[in-house]
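JOB MANIFEST
job_type = single_chain_structure
chain_count = 1
residues = 131
[input]
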Amino acid sequence: MYLYDANAILNLVKRGELRVLLGGHTLDLAIYETANAIWKEYHLLKKIRIEIVYKLIELLSKIFNILDLHTIRGFEKDVMDIAVREGITIYDASYIYIAMKNNLTLVTDDRKLMNIAKKYVNIATTSDITT
């Protein structure tokens, strides 16, 4: 089973490769991260039109309804331990912790996260799981 970070979810959506998300997992945090990335592409980078923003948000809403959402509530200290030990953000440490706790393969296209996460869990890129 796969735990998708926000980066992986967005990359799969942009490529139209949604089937691999079925039966998958993510963090509640990914909802905020993906929405913020879309806002950034529209507002700051001017890469997409407003109509696309709302289509993407609608699609992501459906995706988050089918993914099994996890939270770090109750495990904040454990997540902080990973973040402090590895010098990474709480966001990244959260994905590692949830993948470890639930014996999930972490799917990410973030090279920095990948390099650290592989010490703790199995990792894959979106290309690995779609080819």
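[summary]
The mean pLDDT is 98.
Strands lie at 2-4, 25-27, 68-70, 105-107, 123-124.
exit_status = 0
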